[in-house]
Amino acid sequence: MWRLPRRLCFHVVRKNHFSAPWDRPAAFMSSLLINQPQYAWLKELGLREENEGVYNGSWGGRGEVITTYCPANNEPIARVRQASMADYEETMKKAREAWKIWADIPAPKRGEVVRQIGDALREKIQVLGSLVSLEMGKILVEGVGEVQEYVDICDYAVGLSRMIGGPMLPSERPGHALIEQWNPVGLVGIITAFNFPVAVYGWNNAIAMICGNVCLWKGAPTTSLISVAVTKIIAKVLEDNKLPGAICSLTCGGADIGIAMAKDERVNLLSFTGSTHVGKKVALMVQERFGRSLLELGGNNAIIAFEDADLSLVVPSALFAAVGTAGQRCTTARRLFLHESIHDDVVNRLQKAYAQIRVGNPWDSNVLYGPLHTKQAVSMFLGAVEEAKKEGGTVVYGGKAMDRPGNYVEPTIVTGLAHNATIAHTETFAPILYVFKFKNEEEVFAWNNEVKQGLSSSIFTKDLGRIFRWLGPKGSDCGIVNVNIPTSGAEIGGAFGGEKHTGGGRESGSDAWKQYMRRSTCTINYSKDLPLAQGIKFQ
């Protein structure tokens, strides 16, 4: 039997194996960032030197101990005890029991609990956003913005809790009614990635909860402190409402926990965010048991700028989409198609804009560009740059690792590649922008769609006919199709997700709530007769 690669954890984590819990020299413990005065704010989130990474109504953990590190300097922050398989089994049982209570609570009352979770997050938004910046590595404004996304989806879910349901349909039979009934699936497993360690859980958790489901979360190991901190906030709300904590359970862990969730028939829906490579394996495991999966996988997103594009919009949009979060968004722009008449001008403007990017510690409010999440990501970046050169590309900006502490690389622009170059069709989770020339609409629409992923896309034009062709059946084949805005920065009101190798899942707004429920068509006979459908006589 094949073994799922460690990428189910999304990254390599430094693990410590000790015979006694938390057995670590005092010198190491004093070197943890959490023990330094400037990071005392971490304790406002209930974090300590050693943290338990399992929650099911009570805190525990009997698995391996990991240390999480700050990507800006690779210094240790704190330690987390991961879940063992025994912890997973215990948590699963408690979550299933908690569902029996939660499912009986009316949806608007469930919405009230979610409202309180949103309020509790709002109270901690600055400190929790700072933790996202410290442990994940994204700049502070993005860290705070990510928590705001969770708050926003809570607000959205509260209103939705009074609206979910199906229609009453006209029956062809007299004295009969057709009703579409929606019920919770039961237990929703949520596996999230390092790059959005708060928001993606929030998209799933808030909607799943108002639908009547309980949640079991496995976050990325390298952002375990964020998972613990968020769960502590939620746990307090559940406790205040005298509800079982296992409604929102947590099992920090690696590939073993992820595989268990994928194979477990008690997980009625598994939401997985990560690479296409791992997501395909997860999907096969879930499908083997005829389970449900919601997949948010890779993206290889393109911006297209036509000859009539407003360059004052194109340049800052491409800059934000390519460089924001250091290129570590699933919606990051990795391909930029420029009409041949504007190509050189836009590349020149982008080079100047890249030179103005303020690089530094991500928690500095003046900084716009922080580190990659891990050292392994730096190696992947360097490998991709070399491969682009081998395939005929020219690095016109960046291309190197920065000579400073942490996992910093130069934001990079590559020109001269063929539109179908292998490296350009490969998602590299790093700030590399491949720039291409095109001649006409037909060819560039085809180039946009020729990659296997189908998450986000955008065009810049003033041509109304072209805009609607782009939105139509022969336009972009992505789940997110934008006009005159970047590929990244989606709002919570719309359904988020992509097509093809991106997985087909939808989260957040619109009717994404249907993913978390099962539908029954109910026929009710309120007459004294028994007419059959289609006028069949069976006598």
From TrEMBL:
Main localization, broad class: cytoplasm
Compartment list: Cytoplasm, Cytosol; Mitochondrion; Nucleus
Enzyme class: oxidoreductase
Active site: 296
Gene3D superfamilies: Aldehyde Dehydrogenase, Chain A, domain 1, Aldehyde Dehydrogenase, Chain A, domain 2
Keywords: Acetylation, Cytoplasm, Mitochondrion, NAD, Nucleus, Oxidoreductase, Transit peptide
InterPro entries in the record: Ald_DH/histidinol_DH (IPR016161), Ald_DH_C (IPR016163), Ald_DH_CS_GLU (IPR029510), Ald_DH_N (IPR016162), Aldehyde_DH_dom (IPR015590), ALDH7A1-like (IPR044638)
Pfam family, one: Aldedh
Enzyme Commission number: 1.2.1.3, 1.2.1.31, 1.2.1.8
Superkingdom per UniProt: Eukaryota
TM region(s), chain numbering: none
PROSITE patterns given in the database record: ALDEHYDE_DEHYDR_GLU
Family statement: Belongs to the aldehyde dehydrogenase family.
Record's subunit section: Homotetramer.
Task performed by this protein: Multifunctional enzyme mediating important protective effects. Metabolizes betaine aldehyde to betaine, an important cellular osmolyte and methyl donor. Protects cells from oxidative stress by metabolizing a number of lipid peroxidation-derived aldehydes. Involved in lysine catabolism.
Name of this protein: Alpha-aminoadipic semialdehyde dehydrogenase
Species whose genome carries this gene: Erinaceus europaeus (Western European hedgehog)
Lineage, opening ranks: Eukaryota, Metazoa, Chordata, Craniata, Vertebrata
